[in-house]
Amino acid sequence: MINDNDYEKANFRALIEDDEIGKVSERLNIIEVFLNTEEHVTLEEMMQLLRDRGYDYDPEFVRQCMNRWVEHGFAQKKKFEGQPPRYEHRHLGKHHDHFICTKCGKIEEFRNEEMERLQIKVASTQGFHILQHKMEIYGICSGCLSRRSPLMPLAMAKPGENVVIKDIMGGSHARSRLASMGLRRGDLLEIINNNGLGRLIVGHEATRLAMGRGIAQKIMVSLAPQNEGEGR
Ligand SMILES: [Zn+2]
Ligand SMILES: [Zn+2]
Ligand SMILES: [Zn+2]
Fold this sequence. Notes:
Blueprint: H1 2-19, H2 24-35, H3 43-52, H4 59-71, E1 75-78, E2 86-89, E3 97-101, E4 107-110, H5 113-125, E5 136-139, H6 142-147, E6 152-153, E7 162-168, H7 171-180, E8 188-193, E9 200-204, E10 207-211, H8 213-218, E11 219-223
Parallel strand pairs: 3-5
Antiparallel strand pairs: 1-2, 3-4, 6-11, 7-8, 7-11, 8-9, 9-10
The structure holds zinc ion (3 copies).
């Protein structure tokens, strides 16, 4: 990887010297810092990494430099849902896809040959020729999963999660509210919408239910076991 970086830096130096855009050593410092992180960095995180190395550059200069770096094919700019744009290395001929944790924002890379081949196969059955693709899988990372207590109020569940009702707190009033919605212990719910403020929208069997946060705080749930090989 280090050799890769040295080679890419030399390659980049040749290109910017050809362009005669000036500030070559500053630009190379930025690239050096960028190549030394294996993270998917935002502009702000790049600014912090530069400061950590004692470089105090104008953010606009750094942004322009990063974008030039992208234009020349040394980096990729990625926009993951709900996050500012991020830059990551682009090593020629090497492709990977991403898992994005919707809880902590962590981005993990993966590459699966079978999945890559399958995409080409599926496309070709429709006569489609793939030029590029990106696969982004959103979910909860292993760290967040292990930190989370097995029981939580429904109000804490994230959109897209499937949960099982384990318990109902708050006495007979809450229980009868739930019964009136047709919900019982052991029922499976799919969180359709939960923005942390207003009502939650949950799927229960074939019905979508709107539920106030008050009652959602009283319903204790746990994540539904995920069936491997189930296509969702
Ligand atoms: Zn891929
Ligand atoms: Zn996470
Ligand atoms: Zn990546």
